[in-house]
Automatic annotation (TrEMBL):
Its main location: membrane. One of its GO terms (cellular component) is external side of plasma membrane. The keyword Hydrolase does not apply. This is Ig-like domain-containing protein. It is a single-pass type I membrane protein. Residues 1-31 form the signal peptide. PROSITE patterns: IG_LIKE. Keywords: Cell membrane, Disulfide bond, Glycoprotein, IgG-binding protein, Immunoglobulin domain, Membrane, Receptor, Repeat, Signal, Transmembrane, Transmembrane helix. One of its GO terms (molecular function) is IgG binding. InterPro entries: Ig-like_dom (IPR007110), Ig-like_dom_sf (IPR036179), Ig-like_fold (IPR013783), Ig_Fc_receptor (IPR050488), Ig_sub (IPR003599), Ig_sub2 (IPR003598). The lineage of its organism: Eukaryota, Metazoa, Chordata, Craniata, Vertebrata. GO terms for biological process: antibody-dependent cellular cytotoxicity; positive regulation of phagocytosis; positive regulation of tumor necrosis factor production. The chain crosses the membrane at residues 216-238. The gene is LOC114047681.
Length: 255
């Protein structure tokens, strides 16, 4: 006697797993492959003093005939449409985040500009580095006035002293380079002290993992929860089907 049909667990589970795979791959599938604009600072320091000259360069990887560049400062549009944006003498209002794009390209990376009002400033390209990166510190004076007897400090310990102004360069940073930095120097006969800058050096592997977790773990757990619910439903459905088929199937009588 032909057995009554019952759904096959393997087929149902395979279909569910296929949907799970598609959901997990959805963020990657949504990418349209359009090249993103790249925004850089010139000079590269993210922190500057009032009156400094700063140029932002927007590099767009697009075919000829693209539309003009669109600039954003703290999310608001700027009346600038060239590939570069020069501020001859920055002021406090120029602080903030900058981005650029064209009509047909995604927004560029965000570049932060921090403008300070002081006599002396310890300049750095950014506040976070990966192990193995090169790091350059610059002790910068207001209006680039002559600076001498310069000393760099890390966690209140003197790193290096020279009579004339110089850049402090670390070819390859590691976790020991994390901490607070500042510099001192003489402008004429007056000693000046910069504000402290806190720098963090990260291991690239945990950083990559953290980024992955942030972008994918939440949807992953949602999908896993849905999968659990579907599997539970399938289990009880199959159980009812099997019990029902047993009741409807007559057992052969011996004798």
């Amino acid at each position: 006697m032909r057995r009554p049909w019952a759904p096959q667990p393997g087929t149902a589970t395979s279909s569910v797993l296929l949907w799970v795979a598609l959901l997990c791959l959805a963020p990657a599938i949504r990418s349209d492959g359009r090249p993103r604009a790249v925004l850089t600072l010139e000079p590269p320091w993210f922190n500057v003093l009032q009156g400094d000259k700063v140029t932002l360069n927007c590099k767009v990887f697009q075919t000829p005939g693209h539309h003009s560049i669109k600039w954003l400062h703290n999310g608001s549009a700027l009346p600038i449409h060239q590939n570069s944006y020069t501020i001859p003498a920055v002021n406090m209002e120029n602080s903030g985040e900058y981005q650029c794009r064209t009509e047909h390209t995604p927004l560029s990376n965000s570049v932060k500009l921090q403008v300070s009002s002081d006599w002396l400033l310890l300049q750095v390209e950014r506040l976070e580095f990966m192990e193995g990166d090169s790091m350059t510190l610059r002790c910068h004076s207001w209006r680039s006035q002559p600076l001498n007897k310069v000393t760099y400090y890390h966690n209140d310990q003197a790193l290096k002293y020279e009579f004339q102004s110089f850049d402090y360069i670390v070819p390859k940073v590691n976790y020991t380079h994390s901490g607070s930095y500042y510099c001192t120097g003489f402008m004429g006969h007056i000693s000046q002290l910069s504000a402290t800058v806190v720098i963090t050096v990260q291991d690239p592997r945990p950083s990559t993992s953290s980024s992955f977790k942030f972008r994918y773990y939440v949807p992953f757990y949602i999908v896993m929860g849905l999968l659990f619910a579907v599997d539970t439903g399938l289990y009880f459905t199959l159980k009812r089907e099997v019990n029902s088929s047993k009741k409807n199937t007559k057992c052969p009588v011996s004798g």
